[in-house]
Design brief:
Number of domains: 2
CATH class of the largest domain: Alpha Beta
Number of strands: 12
CATH architecture of the largest domain: 3-Layer(aba) Sandwich
Distance between the termini: 81 Å
Mean pLDDT: 84
Shape: globular
């Protein structure tokens, strides 16, 4: 006969149940509090009910085995939960090996009771942490005033925003082209309809552009293989702003870290996670909300996410199940800080619009009634889709472009009302194209990629505004790295009193900065493709 726990039949069973219930619910509570997801919803109730049922079953099983075995199983579960929650694989195994045996034999029947107290303490800590400003990672203690007299610089990176002349053949392309031109003409921007990135992935494109580089080294790809965080440590673009005396406000995704580039000059670092968990509540179907919430909750663990990806699950849309990545709070925070303290500040915002999944409509409302498949841009390894899916994807992508323009319109109008728009320097650009081509631009697809495919994936937005310079359209095809380098030079000239009348008045002499070529990934170094995107 298995030995019963020493704390008494009913009382001991209750303790064991509470131990497992609070242990299993801890990651869910921490996640929901951190993302401010509504507790009183059917999907959250079902998740809690499932946890309660699992806890009851575990408690019954554990109460009918020997205390040493019960403690060993409980310790193993604690270790697994904490390893997944905090992504501590090796440290978790070390702690389990060093502390586990002593805890099992010394505490015996009191193991769950003492562990329960620790878990409740951790839950309380997660609750109080949720009251902090969500995403506000840093207000540096080394705060110093910006150099007086510097105009605000607003730098907006719109992820996956296609260039104006890169728009694909579609029934609504002409309407969207007119909408983009009208927007930037209204605010006196100098636009480059034929701007393009030489790189497809955000990591490579941003790293090269911000450091004015054009080589085929795949730093980002190597980081992906090594499962390392993407930190933009060398950052020539930020260095220029630092040397001019600017203080930084950065609004970034958790995917790519800009805050460590010039850390001592960062006054505010606000970070948001993707996918946008808050948007799940807009899904019309409870089953859909439950699936989305459960999968994103599991995806909080890098260890579990990598495991799922490595065994090939969820290939029809990844672990985020078609949930929007854009978080409208990034615009709200940028607007608030711009209006409250603009002088001498460099505001940099990485915004996941019109980046997929395509869930935001043209009025910025959220629509999850579409198929999960079409909400995604083309995925690597995805089979060729039929014309209907391609056309639907393109239309949904266009709607997110319109949402991005409307969001920027609101900020610019507020800046005008506050009297700071005219004096501000603003640059808005993409990192790469739409990724809505029929073929993913991978090394293995070189034989089937057409000019239209290359344009859809590499053509990107670039628009710039300087005080006192009338905007116009520049039809020269130029890479993002060259345009950003020119922007830095222009900011330096403007802030040192030199007269400037036109952006990119003359082209650089070095061929690598103006010649037409792009890189496709899939090999290291990346494969260079000599191509003029805008001439068949």
């Amino acid at each position: 006969m298995p030995r019963q726990a020493s704390t008494g039949s009913h009382y001991g069973l209750l303790i064991v149940f509470l131990f497992y219930f609070w242990l299993l619910i801890y990651p869910a509570l921490s996640f929901l509090w951190r993302h401010s997801y509504p507790f009183f919803s059917v999907e959250v109730g079902l998740i809690f009910l499932l946890i309660a049922i699992c806890s009851i079953l575990l408690a019954i099983i554990i109460r009918n085995v020997r205390p040493v075995i019960a403690n060993a199983l409980s310790l193993l579960l604690i270790t697994v939960i904490l390893m997944l929650q905090f992504n501590l694989l090796l440290p978790g195994l070390i702690v389990l090996a060093l502390i586990g045996p002593a805890a099992i034999f010394l505490l015996k029947g009191r193991f769950q009771l003492y562990s329960l107290a620790i878990i409740i303490f951790m839950i309380a800590g997660a609750f109080f942490d949720s009251f902090e400003d969500d995403g506000n990672l840093r207000s540096t203690a080394k705060h110093t005033s910006a150099k007086p007299g510097l105009p605000p610089v607003v730098h907006i990176l719109m992820d996956s925003f296609i260039g104006i002349d890169g728009l694909p053949p579609h029934a609504e392309s002409d309407l969207l082209r007119d909408e983009i031109y009208t927007f930037f003409d209204q605010y006196d921007f100098h636009t480059f309809p034929r701007a393009y990135s030489r790189y497809l992935s955000t990591g490579n494109s941003v790293y090269k552009a911000f450091n004015y580089q054009n080589d085929g080294k795949n730093k980002f790809g190597l980081e992906v293989l090594g499962r390392r965080k993407h930190i933009l440590k060398p950052n020539a673009q930020f260095d220029v702003m630092q040397e001019l005396g600017y203080r930084f406000n950065i609004y970034q995704t958790e995917f790519l870290d800009f805050c460590q580039s010039n850390v001592d000059h960062v006054d505010r670092c606000w970070q948001y996670s993707q996918p946008n968990v808050d948007s799940i509540s807009h899904a019309p179907d409870m089953r859909q909300r439950l699936e989305m919430l459960a999968v994103v909750l599991l995806n909080q663990s890098t260890i579990l996410s990598n495991l799922v990806t490595s065994i090939g699950l969820f290939m029809d849309g990844g672990m985020d199940r078609g949930i929007a990545h854009h978080d409208p709070r990034v615009f709200a925070n940028l607007e608030r800080d711009l209006l409250s303290d603009p002088g001498g500040k460099y505001f940099f915002a990485h915004i996941l619009l019109p980046h997929g999944p395509f869930a935001f409509q043209d009025d910025c409302s959220i629509n999850y009634e579409s198929s999960r498949l079409v909400r995604f841009a083309a995925l690597q390894g995805e089979p060729l889709q039929n014309k209907e899916i391609y056309e639907t994807r393109t239309k949904m992508y266009f709607e997110q472009v319109s949402c991005a323009l409307k969001s920027m319109h609101q900020i610019f109008e507020k800046m005008k009302a506050a009297g700071i728009y005219e004096q501000s320097i603003i640059v808005i650009h993409g990192d790469h194209g739409s990724r809505i081509g029929k073929y993913y631009p991978h090394y293995g697809n070189i034989g089937v990629l057409t000019h239209s495919e290359y344009r859809a994936n590499f053509s990107t937005l670039f628009a710039v505004k300087f005080p006192g310079i009338k905007g116009h359209h520049d039809q020269r095809a130029l890479p993002l790295s060259t345009l950003l380098e020119e922007f830095s030079v222009m900011v330096q000239k403007y802030n040192t009193g030199q007269e400037i009348t036109k952006f990119m008045q003359s082209l650089p002499e070095t061929a690598e900065r103006v010649d037409s070529y792009v890189y496709v990934e899939g090999v290291h170094p990346m494969q260079r493709i000599n191509i003029n995107l805008f001439e068949e």
